[in-house]
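step=encode ok
step=design start
structure_in=
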């Protein structure tokens, strides 16, 4: 009897301690440092890239949750950023291009992630590229709704598309490859260097502030042009560069799925190569140089992140600041004969997602703790760091809003009803906060990421990469599970936003166990019959999950691409 009472009492105490701990985590007002990169796929040491040198991001990852399978909702800056920041999909923000509309006017008065923090007493600050500039954020980066003070834009960005790149002829050009001597640049600096300096200045100001902060720092690289300090290129000798394993356009890729990388062709150095439209290819030696400059740009961004995180620690914020590191989407580096973004391939939609929560993803740091001292990539030999907590489940950028809110101790917004245009605060993603409290025991095959991709026509056109909204005629809807990618390209009418799921122009199906690079499209030419046919042929490969896949496809065809409807359909299915 006594022993039972003792056990009961101990359990009660444990429960109280447990609650106190989580109460503290939930109520302690964490700051948020939200670091966004532009066009960065997970070519990073902490994502097992064998070539890329990213010691500072790796060091962050070693104390963080590292989401191995995170996906953007569209591989284009404007739509992806608006989607991430409002936690709604392109179909709900009604933004599929970079220049068409401002969601508050044309879709709904949706609350953004920084706005939500601002409404809870945070000082919210934007440095560099967070919202896509121009019409899509009302020419103000959504100030004053999202930010406490007007967003900062680095003055040297003005020269980003000027003739400032020294070519082999010794003259200045507007080139794709643009390794520069920084002291010779107009203003003697570069935009991301200015971003880091401004962000550190703001952190110092926040030291004196009473309120917690949400500081968003948006780096411009590795977005083209590769205007970067020349020393970073030397980290990647050209004779060590290799092409991807699948440098050719796949045989059964539908022409609507192909993106002709028009923005690359416009640069002077690429134009001079007389590459044929739409399929190219780019000469091999130039492909290797693009890869070299992309990787060098990643190391340049890594150095900026390192300086910023070093300052965070110096100022005593290392123990009470959540750090998020991600990107708006990926970038093809010659895989499938493609470059740039603008597609539904993983190389274009998959992003790095690293989230550090002090005391949760790493031991609590006191106010004097410096969790991330700067690592100089030129001085220190690269060492293999093990990422903190790996999360393999498929997650989406729309999940960030509820996840970060929850981790910071605010309530995660509720799931959106359908339609949700009248609802200011809700999410079309879901909170992934539980992955921070409990280790992942298995990877759910039902977790899926959804992406969209607009096209003006079934064959590659000059505007196929970025059609204006009024020119969109085909919309690609893509599902990415841990097992497959399935994409339907369907007819679309911009005047009434109508995607006709029974007007199928083309399809793609890749079974990732067999074909992780997505080179063998199994969606037959004959629509569904072709699909069943290909599935039939692949029975042995897919036997374990063929039924689930078939069922997903049936649900998709019956309910359209909305995730919630799909989930309902999946739940109510017999036999799954
Ligand atoms: C939009 O919402 C913001 C607060 O989130 C509010 O201040 C503003 O008045 C709203 N605008 C309209 C047109 O309803
Ligand atoms: C967008 O900007 C214009 C011009 O500055 C301003 O008049 C308008 O109120 C802004 N729209 C919203 C929804 O705030
Ligand atoms: C960069 O340019 C400055 C000014 O022209 C020059 O003094 C310096 O030597 C250059 N640095 C390199 C590494 O070329
Ligand atoms: C590209 O075409 C131009 C004009 O036809 C020609 O002068 C130039 O030599 C060509 N360049 C290459 C690399 O073939």
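sequence_out=
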């Amino acid at each position: 009897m006594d022993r039972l009472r003792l056990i009961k009492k101990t359990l009660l105490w444990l429960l109280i301690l447990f609650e106190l701990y989580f109460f503290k985590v939930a109520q302690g007002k964490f700051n948020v440092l939200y670091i966004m990169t532009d066009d960065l796929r997970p070519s990073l040491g902490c994502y097992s890239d064998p070539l890329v040198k990213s010691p500072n991001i790796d060091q962050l990852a070693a104390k963080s949750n590292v989401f191995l399978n995170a996906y953007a909702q569209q591989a284009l800056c404007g739509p992806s950023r608006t989607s991430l920041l409002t936690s709604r999909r392109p179909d709900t923000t009604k933004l599929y291009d970079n220049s068409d509309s401002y969601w508050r006017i044309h879709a709904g008065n949706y609350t953004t992630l920084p706005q939500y923090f601002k409404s809870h007493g945070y000082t919210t600050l934007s440095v560099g590229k967070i919202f896509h500039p121009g019409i899509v954020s009302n020419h103000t980066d959504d100030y004053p709704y999202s930010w406490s003070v007007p967003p900062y834009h680095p003055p040297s960005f003005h020269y980003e598309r000027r003739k400032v790149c020294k070519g082999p002829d010794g003259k200045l050009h507007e080139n794709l490859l643009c390794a520069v001597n920084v002291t010779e640049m107009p203003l003697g600096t570069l935009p991301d260097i200015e971003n880091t300096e401004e962000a550190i200045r703001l952190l110092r100001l926040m030291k004196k502030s009473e309120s917690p902060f949400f500081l968003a720092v948006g780096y411009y690289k590795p977005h083209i042009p590769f205007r970067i300090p020349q020393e970073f290129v030397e980290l990647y000798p050209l004779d060590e560069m290799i092409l991807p394993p699948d440098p050719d356009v796949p045989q059964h890729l539908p022409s609507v799925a192909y993106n002709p990388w028009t923005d690359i062709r416009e640069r002077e150095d690429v134009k001079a190569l007389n590459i044929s439209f739409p399929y190219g290819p780019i000469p091999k030696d130039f492909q290797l140089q693009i890869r070299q400059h992309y990787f060098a740009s990643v190391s340049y961004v890594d150095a900026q992140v390192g300086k910023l995180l070093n300052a965070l620690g110096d100022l005593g914020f290392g123990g009470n600041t959540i750090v998020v590191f991600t990107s708006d989407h990926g970038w093809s580096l010659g895989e499938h004969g493609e470059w740039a973004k603008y597609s539904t391939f993983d190389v274009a939609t998959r992003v790095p997602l690293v989230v550090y929560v002090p005391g949760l993803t790493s031991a609590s740091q006191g106010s004097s703790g410096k969790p991330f001292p700067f690592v100089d990539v030129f001085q220190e030999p690269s060492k293999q760091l093990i990422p903190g907590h790996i999360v393999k489940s498929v997650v989406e950028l729309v999940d960030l809003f509820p996840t970060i809110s929850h981790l910071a101790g605010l309530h995660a917004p509720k799931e959106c009803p359908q339609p949700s245009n009248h609802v200011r605060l809700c999410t079309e993603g879901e909170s992934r906060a539980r992955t921070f409290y409990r280790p992942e025991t298995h990877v759910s095959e039902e977790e899926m990421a959804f992406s969209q991709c607009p096209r003006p026509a079934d064959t590659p056109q000059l505007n196929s990469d970025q059609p204006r909204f009024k020119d969109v005629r085909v919309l690609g809807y893509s599902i990415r599970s841990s097992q497959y990618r399935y994409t339907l390209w369907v007819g679309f009418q911009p005047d009434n936003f109508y995607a006709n799921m029974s007007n199928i122009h083309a399809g793609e199906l890749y079974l990732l166990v067999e074909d992780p690079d997505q080179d063998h499209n199994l969606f037959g030419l004959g629509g569904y019959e072709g699909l069943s046919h290909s599935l039939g042929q692949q029975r042995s490969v897919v036997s374990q999950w063929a039924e689930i896949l078939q069922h997903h496809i049936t649900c998709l065809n019956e309910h359209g691409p909305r995730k919630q409807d799909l989930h309902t359909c999946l739940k109510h299915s017999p036999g799954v």
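step=design ok
step=annotate ok -> Residues 19-28, 525-546 have pLDDT under 50 and may be disordered.
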